[in-house]
TrEMBL record:
<keyword id="KW-0479">Metal-binding</keyword>
<keyword id="KW-0560">Oxidoreductase</keyword>
<comment type="pathway">
    <text>Porphyrin-containing compound metabolism; protoporphyrin-IX biosynthesis; protoporphyrinogen-IX from coproporphyrinogen-III (AdoMet route): step 1/1.</text>
</comment>
<comment type="function">
    <text>Involved in the heme biosynthesis. Catalyzes the anaerobic oxidative decarboxylation of propionate groups of rings A and B of coproporphyrinogen III to yield the vinyl groups in protoporphyrinogen IX.</text>
</comment>
<dbReference type="GO" id="GO:0051989">
    <property type="term" value="F:coproporphyrinogen dehydrogenase activity"/>
</dbReference>
<protein>
    <recommendedName>
        <fullName>Coproporphyrinogen-III oxidase</fullName>
        <ecNumber>1.3.98.3</ecNumber>
    </recommendedName>
</protein>
<dbReference type="InterPro" id="IPR034505">
    <property type="entry name" value="Coproporphyrinogen-III_oxidase"/>
</dbReference>
<dbReference type="Pfam" id="PF06969">
    <property type="entry name" value="HemN_C"/>
</dbReference>
<dbReference type="Pfam" id="PF04055">
    <property type="entry name" value="Radical_SAM"/>
</dbReference>
<dbReference type="InterPro" id="IPR006638">
    <property type="entry name" value="Elp3/MiaA/NifB-like_rSAM"/>
</dbReference>
<dbReference type="InterPro" id="IPR058240">
    <property type="entry name" value="rSAM_sf"/>
</dbReference>
<comment type="similarity">
    <text>Belongs to the anaerobic coproporphyrinogen-III oxidase family.</text>
</comment>
<feature type="domain" description="Radical SAM core">
    <location>
        <begin position="48"/>
        <end position="284"/>
    </location>
</feature>
<keyword id="KW-0949">S-adenosyl-L-methionine</keyword>
<keyword id="KW-0627">Porphyrin biosynthesis</keyword>
<comment type="subunit">
    <text>Monomer.</text>
</comment>
<keyword id="KW-0411">Iron-sulfur</keyword>
Length: 461
């Protein structure tokens, strides 16, 4: 399994643009407030009629501490009782959503994100999962993927035991950086011992997979300092790793205004950090999945990429492309059939809708045929670095060269630069193009090409 990217500084500098991460296509910036929620209900009923398996996402917005780099929808508070009020509303949403689906539809994937899901105590998390199990059919098969994001500062062994007993099979740990100076600068101070304790608990209790998040580009980061963090993380051997580029967008995310821009590493240092960290991970046996993600060769993500079944959605890379995604909680996003919806991001509006026995939908989008075609193309490229036109033609009854005539013309410079090769049989991303996969996908994004509004997006690398 050799999926390693090739580093080409000249190409990276040339394609230094901002663009979508393609956790969806069309991206969330295209969702409209004028969306008719009946489209969502119709999609849910069709899902119910066909018995599609489900993926459930629950957004827990609370954090006890604010991390200055954060771009999530969150509420920073030390008042734990606020979670009880929120859960009462979330329970109401669970009931309303469950009414749209078939009680025999299996939940094969479940994820708690945030915020900090472990802001909830053991009793609250247990109550949430019990409520879900009352209204949805939780699967107990070997292929389930029930995961939760953890703050190692707030998790002890009894909590880990509770999570395992509730059926969670995978945890995601926010590490970011192990350097104390960097941690102080972003208000995320957590010692290595805390992280190792959570990791030891996960392995002792036979969690199937451990994911760790790292961020490069944070204030006071240096090449040597971050490589020290990488060495320590490699020694811990998480099954999956994300190596995210910090996007400094203080005009959009208020906590980032507490970061002094002059403390951020220069662009050339950021690239050196990414290059050397990637090399270390590959040399230590990790597989490059794509878009900042790495996994051990025996992890499900790596195996799904190898057999062509890898998928990408709002939870990132996933092995559950067969599932309809139902998001619950403030700001959460669903994709059911050909319909996207997002809940209210404002807590008052979220609660007000539920008090009226309405799904708290704020905006959405119903995909047309063109959206579906382009989504398939982008998913193939971003997951597998290869796309076969014949498969698209067969599924959607189009002539690929005619349908994508302008895109194929616009791709010529990328082909001349060695990012891709195009033949009648396949569009293949080269090793040098893998790090720039977002740029390649952007060529098939009709919304981006029309607007090229980059203020919403992070740098592609």
């Amino acid at each position: 399994m050799n999926n390693a990217p090739v580093w080409d500084t000249g190409l990276i500098n040339k394609y230094d643009l901002s663009g979508p991460r393609y956790t969806s296509y069309p991206t969330a910036v295209e969702f409209s407030d004028d969306f008719d929620r009946q489209y969502y209900q119709s999609s849910a009923w069709l899902s119910s009629a066909t018995g599609k398996p489900l993926s459930l996402y629950f957004h827990i917005p609370f954090c006890q501490h604010v991390c200055y780099y954060c771009a999530c929808n969150k509420i920073v508070t030390k008042r734990r009782e606020q979670a009880d009020t929120y859960l009462n509303y979330l329970f109401k949403e669970i009931e309303l959503q469950a009414d749209l689906y078939n009680e025999e539809q299996e939940v094969q994937q479940l994820h708690l994100g945030g915020g900090t899901p472990t802001f909830l105590n053991q009793e609250q998390i247990s109550a949430l999962i019990n409520k879900v199990s009352e209204h949805f059919k939780l699967s107990h098969g070997n292929d389930i993927d029930y995961s939760i994001e953890l703050d190692p500062r707030e998790v002890d062994w009894p909590m880990m035991s509770t999570l395992r007993d509730l059926g969670f099979s995978r945890i995601s740990i926010g590490v970011q950086d192990l350097d104390p100076g960097v941690q102080q600068a972003v208000n995320r101070v957590q010692c290595e011992t805390q992280i190792k304790s959570v990791l030891d608990a996960a392995r002792t209790m036979a969690f199937k997979s451990v994911h760790m998040d790292l961020i490069y580009g944070l204030p006071h980061q240096t090449l040597d300092g971050f490589l020290t963090t990488i060495d320590k993380v490699i020694a811990m051997q998480p099954d999956r790793l994300s190596l995210f580029n910090y996007a400094h967008l203080p005009h959009r995310f208020m906590p980032q205004r507490r970061i002094n821009e002059s403390d951020l590493p220069p662009a050339d240092v950021k690239l050196q950090i990414l290059q050397q960290a990637t090399r270390k991970l590959l040399d230590s046996g990790y597989v490059y999945i794509g878009m900042d993600h790495f996994a051990l060769p025996d992890d499900e993500l790596a195996m799904a990429q190898e057999d062509g079944t890898l998928h990408r959605n709002f939870q990132g890379y996933t092995t559950h492309s067969q599932c309809d995604l139902v998001g619950m909680g403030v700001s959460s996003i669903s994709k059911v059939g050909n319909t996207y919806v997002q809940n209210h991001t404002d807590m008052t509006e979220y609660q007000s809708a539920l008090e009226q026995n309405l799904l708290p939908i704020k905006r959405g989008l119903k995909m047309n045929k063109d959206d579906r075609i382009r989504q398939r193309v982008i998913n193939e490229l971003i997951c597998h670095f290869r796309m076969e036109p014949a498969k698209i033609e067969q599924q959607y009854t189009i002539d690929f060269p005619s349908y994508f005539l302008s895109e194929l013309i616009n791709l010529k410079p990328l082909e001349q630069d060695g990012l891709i090769t195009i033949t009648p049989e396949a569009l293949e991303v080269s090793p040098a193009g893998k790090l720039l996969i977002r740029n390649i996908c952007m060529m098939f994004d009709q919304y981006y090409q029309k607007q090229k509004n980059m203020k919403f997006f992070s740098k592609t690398i």
